[in-house]
Amino acid sequence: MSGERVKMGIAGLDDMLGGGLIPGSICGIIGTYGTGKTTFSIEFVWEGLKKGENIIYISLEEREERIIGYMEQKGWDVVPYLNKSLFVIKLDPTDFNLANNRIKNELPKLIDEVKASRVVIDPISLFEDLFTLDSERRQEMFRFVEGLRDKNCTIVLTSETDKSNVFSSRHALIEFLVDTVILLRYVRASDLTDVHLALEVVKMRMSAHSREIKPYELMQDQVLVYSEANVF
Ligand SMILES: Nc1ncnc2c1ncn2[C@@H]1O[C@H](COP(=O)(O)OP(=O)(O)O)[C@@H](O)[C@H]1O
Ligand SMILES: [Mg+2]
């Protein structure tokens, strides 16, 4: 697909994606705790803010202040953007009706109202957890994601991995619904002395992409993907 790509703001990863995400597409970032899902998603936010875009960040885990504080720690002056072009919203992941209403009904309206071109939900897995029936979860998530496709914005949904399978999202659903899947995980050396982080682009609809597994590091001021290095 031609046209300008939407950069995630992580150099080596954008290269692996063929320049970035496809405009209007939906990306899932899947990884267990501490692999950098929140970090990747705020890099995506900052990249958009620098370009003058409007952004909605829905957090189901960390409070607004923590997300904003984390950005400031990175040396980004985000305060002037708050509630002008950056909207950070914390949702309570224990109240099904409230979270469900805000995500399904209010978010699509808010996207139109603020003309958001980037949206993050971090992590979507806490929202998925709220459904008691698998069949209901599947149906509702499918509808929700399809609804987001009509919006003119590029979306990042993060998900915890399944307890027993670090290659799969918590409910093994998101990877089928989204266009692009980025998998983050720990890689342990065989002697168990060292743990490294590695990422791969598992799928990307309508585009060529790298299938290599690349090491990365979460640095104080940036995410470094060692695109020249190999994990194995
Ligand atoms: N507020 C923060 N300040 C400094 N470092 C942080 C902060 N949040 C996360 N990190 C670093 O980034 C790593 C990944 O965290 P995070 O992006 O929150 O992962 P995830 O969202 O996948 O659980 C942490 O283990 C830590 O090293
Ligand atoms: Mg997180």
CATH architecture: 3-Layer(aba) Sandwich
What small molecules does the structure contain?
A: adenosine-5'-diphosphate, magnesium ion
Euclidean distance between termini CA atoms = 31 Å
Classify the beta-strand content into a percent band. Answer: 25-35%
Shape: globular
Q: What are its keywords?
A:
alpha/beta; Rossmann fold; 9-stranded mixed β-sheet; two-stranded antiparallel sheet; 11 strands; binds adenosine-5'-diphosphate; binds magnesium ion
Commentary on this structure:
The protein contains 7 helices and 11 strands. The protein has one domain: P-loop containing nucleotide triphosphate hydrolases (Rossmann fold). A 9-stranded mixed beta sheet has the order 3-2-4-5-1-8-9-10-11, with helices on both faces. The protein starts with 10 loop residues before the first helix and ends in a 7-residue tail after the last strand. The protein is of the alpha/beta class and 232 residues long. Adenosine-5'-diphosphate binds next to helix 2 and helix 3.
Summarize the topology:
Elements: H1 11-16, E1 26-30, H2 37-50, E2 55-59, H3 64-73, E3 86-90, H4 96-114, E4 118-122, H5 124-128, H6 134-149, E5 154-159, E6 161-162, E7 165-169, H7 174-177, E8 180-188, E9 195-204, E10 214-218, E11 223-225
Parallel strand pairs: 1-5, 1-8, 2-3, 2-4, 4-5
Antiparallel strand pairs: 6-7, 8-9, 9-10, 10-11
The protein binds adenosine-5'-diphosphate (ADP) and magnesium ion (MG).
Adenosine-5'-diphosphate is lined by residues 31, 33-39, 70, 73, 218.
